[in-house]
Amino acid sequence: MRYFIVDDDKASRTMLKNIITERELGVVIGEADSGANSLTSILSMHPDVVLIDLLMPKLDGIETIEHLRKEGFQGQFIMISQIVNKEMVGEAYEKGVEFFIHKPINRVEVQSILKKTEEQFKLKNSLLAIRQSLENIAPNKPLMRRQNIKDIVVTILSDMGVIGEVGSDDIVTIIEYLMEREDQAIQLPPLKDLYEIVALKTQPVDIKKESKAIEQRIRRTILTAINNLASMGLIDYTNPNFEYYAPRYFDFQEIRNQMRQINEEGDVATRVKVNIKKFLQVLYLETKDKYY
């Protein structure tokens, strides 16, 4: 993640920069001591996120955001503020502010908010990439027979090298259920509910026990996908499956950590952060886009 900091307090800018650097949350590509002095740099450097103080001379935070939006800036904003004013907070949200960081700056709060922002940023990019890939299909290209849901999911899992893994059938069943729902909501229901739905199809004696087993099978399958993609990336960083799936379905930092582990020790780490909900969410949305 690429950050730009706008704050008239040099100490605040320094502290935010140190937190981002020390915690490896991204890189600070620029900073400014006022909104007026930040406009040209932000528009030319295109940071992913702008950390911006609410109260500043010449142009305050909200006015700066308005100027940047009018010029077409599409990045995210996090407001830094010492004042808790409901009207000003409401106006900031209307202008596109994603989160607030309160002064005096707290390291734990900053880390938490920046990680949430990164997750939101990655999800938006994943959805955008899926839409763009669909838009690139020529409108006059003859339509082929539509794949069924299972074929779509199996193809994606096969690209990641996990067809035949213990949890691949569970994943297919979950996506089939999500696609068959009447409401077709974008957001997933709680994972616990999904596990129970899959468990009920096998009519086990103990639903809770089978649900836990399903969770573990899916977790192991996703972990295998992470390891497979990390290996692909080490062999060929331009591998199309690596380039497509690694940044969309996973925390790319986890993939890089696995690549480093394999390169340095010749083995894969088993203690990896596996985000089941993100994986299923992106898989569901991609399946939905390819099916309709």
TrEMBL record:
PROSITE patterns: RESPONSE_REGULATORY (PS50110). InterPro entries: CheY-like_superfamily, Sig_transdc_resp-reg_receiver, ST_Response_Regulator, YcbB. SMART domains: REC (SM00448). Residues 2-118 form the Response regulatory domain. Gene3D superfamilies: 3.40.50.2300. Pfam families: Response_reg, YcbB. The modification 4-aspartylphosphate is found at D53. Keywords: Phosphoprotein. The keyword Phosphoprotein applies. Coiled coil: none annotated. This is Response regulator. It comes from Psychrobacillus mangrovi.
